[in-house]
Amino acid sequence: MTKFLPTLATLAALAALMPAAAQPAAAAEPVLLIHGGAGTLRAADMSADDRAAYEAALHAALEAGWRVLESGGSALDAVTAAIVPMEDSPLFNAGRGAVFTADGRNELDASIMDGATRQAGAVGAVRWVRNPVLLARRVMEASPHVFLAGEGAIEFAIDQGLELKPSSWFRTERRWQQLQHAILQGALPIEPDQGRFGTVGAVALDAGGRLAAATSTGGTTAKRWGRLGDVPVIGAGTWADTGCAVSATGDGEYFIRAAAAHAICARMSLGGDTPAAAASGVLEEIRALGGLGGVIVLDGAGRYSLSFSTEGMYRGRADAAGREVAIFAGEEP
Ligand code: ASP
Asked: According to a count of CB atoms within 10 Å of the terminal CB, is the N or C end of the chain lower?
């Protein structure tokens, strides 16, 4: 029997037949983008102190993620590291400081995706889990599943030894007052485009050319309990593959119906769109359906877009040149 001994030429021919996803990514200049939600907010309505607090929180998230990328860490670790401090900050609608459901609870959604392997993890409607993004990552890495919700997800968090916090940890007076305001307006649960702002997200490109994305939220103020938005729906609020990573924020129901994050990457890979063109195309599609919001988009060459159809989006970018944050339209980045 003749043994098949591959020559270098055959190996090269076999490598050429491998799908792009299986080929090692090229070296890249690392980039990290973050957002802290998009919504109706005018510069004139924001005090200097509030602005400084948000900017400091965005910088802290950028620093945490950038430290990972700078030391040669993975895009996956960078997006995780960037999200955790924003979940712990009471300023954002994720983890601590999440909005309340119509019946006065905090129900948290999060997801994460590794572009290089196309592995993904998501959790929906979880309570008491301090960092839902860490739970989404455990779902991805320590379970055979992609998406866990409700009690089963909380039980999995306990099994995994993740930190739980009492309800009081998540409660902030500001979010509680937003719920009271919604109650006074009547008609609960309210429309999804009211009373949110503050979902957090991150996308990163690491030195090995790998992309990742993650998003975390408390959802929408006075939502019906059990409601899941776009954030934990892979392809809607979060997507990463070998050429593109996206994290979204906005009217979740519309982002689901547009398969927003995946649609942006498909426009780039199939249609040759730039990140900016793909982002504005999908945001327009969502606007036509009746929704508003924003996205952060990054490709494998480090080209990016931080786009929104609202008046503002908390956002930031880190690369070798430095760290920048912005809130309103017309500001860099
Ligand atoms: N997209 C989130 C949701 O619908 C909310 C937001 O991003 O502001 O749950």
From this structure: N
